[in-house]
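user: At home tonight, take the chain set out below, taking as long as you need, and be ready to discuss the fold:
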Amino acid sequence: MQQLNRRQIPILFLIFLPVLFMGICILKYGVNFPFSDQWPLAVMFEKIYAGNLSFSDLFAQFHESRKFFPRLIFIGLAFLTNWDVRYEMLVIFLLTCVVSLNIYCLNRLTVRASFFTQLLLLAISNLLIFSPAQYENWLWGIQIVVYIPIACLTGCLVIAQKKLSLRTKFIICFCLCTVSTFSYANGMLIWVLVFPALAILASGKFEEVFTKNIWIIIGGLLGLVTNAVAYFYDYQKPNKHPSFLSAIAHPVETFHYFLAFLGAPLGFENLTVATIVGGLVFGFWLFLGWKFFWLVKTDFLLLHRSICWLIIGIYGIISGAVTAVGRVGFGVGQSLAPRYTAFSLYLMVSLVYLLAIFWQLASQKDVQAKLIKYASYFLVSILIILHFKTTINAVERMSDRRAILLQSKACLLTINVVPQDECLVTKRSPEPLRKKANILDKLGFLQPGLVKSKNIQDIAGETQTDLIYGYFDTVNQIDNRTYVANGWAILPERNEVADGVILTYENAEGEDIIFKLINQRMPRPSVREYFDNSAYLDSGWQKSFTVEEIPQGKIKLKAWAFDTETGKAFLLNQTQVVFP
């Protein structure tokens, strides 16, 4: 273990800064709320509760994937944490740390540079590996599935470099490739990447790859075929996905999609920027790949140093090509989906290390040294500038995403008392959703739990006299049947706007009865200025209701700020009276 000196300490800070920043973002913006593709897991939990979960349920196809191994993780975490999906986000973070560690190990094994240079390369690659551009993945626990393949791939490449018996390496890589295959659709790709690399690294010259170690490649192909047979047994093409014929019919759009896909990690969701960046990265990677192709013909050991980085780059390129062919029917703009950056960023990581190795070769032989040097400085400068802008954009998106999920959680928690509202991001009709939500609630998998009574006192929180939760400003009558209520609401303990606003009416017994949930927000600049707090900008709310929703006669209305993290509602200042 090399000793650190004062010059290396700032580099260590730069290495861990992206890691720390991303960890803080997950803690700050993560919401314990299952949405979209996470809801089918509720069916498995129900079967476990009933005692009839089968192997076929775990192996079942979902979209294009068979998520057998991730389902084991989801089930285990659910019963350990009462399905707090933030722990799934933690697993994503840990898998990314594993990838970063694997990249560092490959760095140490293949880049013949000073310890300072190796640390500097790791700092640059960590900017990409922990990029906030992946914000959709970081804050969506089910995206564990997209990080398992790259963790398995980089793990296999590290194992291939280690001083273990060839048989041991083969068995470990075989197991990791199987895990990758039955985690996510593109996980099958690593079969065709890992075993050729293993055969090359086990050989001292080209001839041995196809003679002495050909069994490694054949064994990998047999493993691929075996896994593919199991994978495609009773496979059904997802109905809502576009046909592959779209890619053939529109080749220009497909290539455009491909380039934007590759440039998205630094494109801050701008299609033009992403396309330009993707073109530059892909073009420069092809240039380096061509140069290495000619160099390794006379230097087989150079292939040992570069093969891992070439494989990682090919992983990103093929992922982009397959996605472009399969998704271009959705439109070129879909290439910027943040979840895809978990694949495309590894082409950039590959480029960083291939460039470092080539720079060393050029410096040693004094060939194109200045060109490579200036190109490296240029690319790193562009990376840092675009990464900074991408980070700003991603943090804004994470904040927006948290707001949407909290609003949707408010809707879910009140689904038994205000069933007419649909949750914003579940994409499911209320009745089936209500049934699943009540099953999860019985299992203790919804925290803080569903609101079970229309009487607001059952969830009323203790209002502190020195805190202001908001105001119920006015109720205006629009016509003979319709009223519009408006005001603003915040949660001062959390320094956020309210997750939802609950309207109640007072019945004959003096009880406040829930009849309406407001889970959408409006700008209120005056509130932001009053508290001198930009977090309160979107604290405004407004909602219409009809006379059929409240009793007849003189009716007192109240509004409550709803906190989905505690399940409590806090009374807003002022009440309103209507005479329906």
Summary: The chain is about 55% helix and 10% strand.
